[in-house]
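Renewal narrative, Specific Aim 1. Our central claim is that a sequence can be written position by position from structural information alone. The example that follows is taken directly from our test logs and has not been curated for this report. It begins with the structure tokens describing the chain, in the order in which they were read.
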């Protein structure tokens, strides 16, 4: 998505109090620290990192997140694959099962120079890829417990899919991959570590089964921010795919995957109404600006639709959360009387999101700040859409 140059000039170098809202803010120093921490952890486990860019969808963020020992990234859509491929990223894993109707688009991406690989979990889809004529690198997706997509390590389809890929003239088996999305249902670090081991064992077993049958399996990939952060073993794993750790959010901090002060993404919003009699404040950030994800609702701490902080991302208002959202309104209920002395119509605040992937999706750019500074230091492009 293109960014108007004039709009950038109006934002770059300006104080947050002068920025039109809602707007997406990204703290570059926190992002950099989060990325370095994950790389160091994965390297200490003896593996490598393939950062998943489905959250920030920004080439500038990807350059910071990239693991020099690996060089590849993961994405969730062909649009993202095109965006990063056009900007010099040559190893792009579309970490989702592609239907045959998207194979032509995938071929166009590979013909433009990008090395695109994608997931398959169905023998018929594998056959369609082998018969297509395009040059495809394919991962077999393994279900390690989330039960979304993927096949069980002992599923007869595993060998069938591998045989079909191997028989194709232009198809190559990239390896096996899984995503432990069910780790988000965990409530303790011990539980997350148990899921991380379940995730690891599932793909390692699948890879062993394929190798015992004579197939080459060069790559074994796992992916989930909670399991990547809390994993204690990477035996048999060649790469970790994770992405939320870069920006962080309230779900991750509640899970213990990062500290509250590590959350690098926030939404800048403006107070548009105050009512002391109802103990209510309304902001111009609603369901579209924040998303309606209530990821913390069933967790140890419920942050509503987001936590309100000051322009330095500090909790100076206590635990003030968005109670209810409409399309363009965010309502804050049970507001302490002391807060009305700090926030007036026109006041700006930053809102930390429950699920940063969903929240970031509405924005065409990221306004970059550095730590406590309240000045826009840079404006980064990001992409949106599917095709």
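The sequence written for that structure reads:
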């Amino acid at each position: 998505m293109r960014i108007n140059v004039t709009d950038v000039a109006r934002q770059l170098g300006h104080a947050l109090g002068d920025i039109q809202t809602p707007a997406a803010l990204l703290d570059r120093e926190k992002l950099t620290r989060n990325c370095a921490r994950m790389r160091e952890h994965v390297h200490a486990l003896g593996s490598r990192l393939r950062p998943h860019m489905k959250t920030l969808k920004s080439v500038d963020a990807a350059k910071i997140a990239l693991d020099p020992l690996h060089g590849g990234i993961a994405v969730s859509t062909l649009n993202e694959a095109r965006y990063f491929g056009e900007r010099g990223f040559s190893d792009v894993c579309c970490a989702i099962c592609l239907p045959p109707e998207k194979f032509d688009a995938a071929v166009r991406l590979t013909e433009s120079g990008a090395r695109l690989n994608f997931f398959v979990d169905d023998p018929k889809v594998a056959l369609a890829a082998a018969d297509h004529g395009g040059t495809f690198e394919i991962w077999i997706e393994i279900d390690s417990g989330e039960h979304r997509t993927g096949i069980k390590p002992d599923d007869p389809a595993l060998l069938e899919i591998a045989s079909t890929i191997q028989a194709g003239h232009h198809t190559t088996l990239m390896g096996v991959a899984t995503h432990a999305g069910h780790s988000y249902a965990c409530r303790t670090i011990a539980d997350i570590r148990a899921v991380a081991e379940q995730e690891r064992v599932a793909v390692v077993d699948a890879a062993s089964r394929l190798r015992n049958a004579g197939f080459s399996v060069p790559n074994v990939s796992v992916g989930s921010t909670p399991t990547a952060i809390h994993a204690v073993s990477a035996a048999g794993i060649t790469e970790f795919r994770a992405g939320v750790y870069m920006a962080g959010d309230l779900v991750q901090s509640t899970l213990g995957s990062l500290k509250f002060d590590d959350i690098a993404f926030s939404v800048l919003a403006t107070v548009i109404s105050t009512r002391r009699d109802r103990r209510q404040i309304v902001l111009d950030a609603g369901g579209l600006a924040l998303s309606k994800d209530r990821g913390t609702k069933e967790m140890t701490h419920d942050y509503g639709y987001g936590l309100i902080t000051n322009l330095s991302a500090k909790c100076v208002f206590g635990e003030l959360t968005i109670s209810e959202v409409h399309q363009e309104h965010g309502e804050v209920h049970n507001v302490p009387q002391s807060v009305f002395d700090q926030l007036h119509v026109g006041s700006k605040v930053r809102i930390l999101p429950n699920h940063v992937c969903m929240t970031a999706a509405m924005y065409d750019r990221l306004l970059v700040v550095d730590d406590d500074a309240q000045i826009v230091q840079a404006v980064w492009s990001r992409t949106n859409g599917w095709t």
